[in-house]
Amino acid sequence: MKLERHSKIVELIGKYQIGTQEELAEYLNKEGYNVTQATVSRDIRELRLSKVAGEDGKQHYVVLQNQENFNDKYIRILKDGFLNMDMAQNILVIKTVSGMAMAVAAALDELHFHEIVGCVAGDNTIMCAVRSVDDTIIVMDKLKKLTAD
């Protein structure tokens, strides 16, 4: 149950800009998880969630997974291999430098974007199955920010 709840928390904070424990508890309760603010507080600590300022200036929770150890390496791989991307409904097609698709797909997998179900890579093309059309747009925005110089 805890693992499912943690997965739902990551999904919710990826989908909505949730700024307080109470707000997160409300979303979880709407999703059928009977939680208290104390439970949410423990979950936030265990998931190592951080707060960052959104575009509107308000703070909201985000997942910074192994930020200090791995993300820089994976972001560097994304920047080195990424050329462009396009979407076809909930499929994201990413073009890479020749021979880099597998490395870029592995980097995407390790960044654990909850919106991405999985990736298939060839030599210079990656097809990512994304949960929904809206999530595809979210992933494209994340990738634009990560690969921008």
Automatic annotation (TrEMBL):
Cellular compartments per GO CC: cytoplasm
One Gene Ontology MF term: DNA-binding transcription factor activity
Subcellular location as annotated: Cytoplasm
Entry-linked Pfam families: Arg_repressor (PF01316), Arg_repressor_C (PF02863)
Biological process, per Gene Ontology: L-arginine biosynthetic process; protein complex oligomerization; regulation of arginine biosynthetic process
Primary location group: cytoplasm
Record-annotated Arginine repressor DNA-binding domain positions: 2-68
Pathway: Amino-acid biosynthesis; L-arginine biosynthesis [regulation]
Gene3D superfamilies for this protein: 3.30.1360.40, Winged helix-like DNA-binding domain superfamily/Winged helix DNA-binding domain
Chain ranges of the Arginine repressor C-terminal domain: 78-145
Key words of the record: Amino-acid biosynthesis, Arginine biosynthesis, Cytoplasm, DNA-binding, Repressor, Transcription, Transcription regulation
Task performed by this protein: Regulates arginine biosynthesis genes.
Family listed: Belongs to the ArgR family.
Full protein name: Arginine repressor
Name of the gene this protein is made from: argR
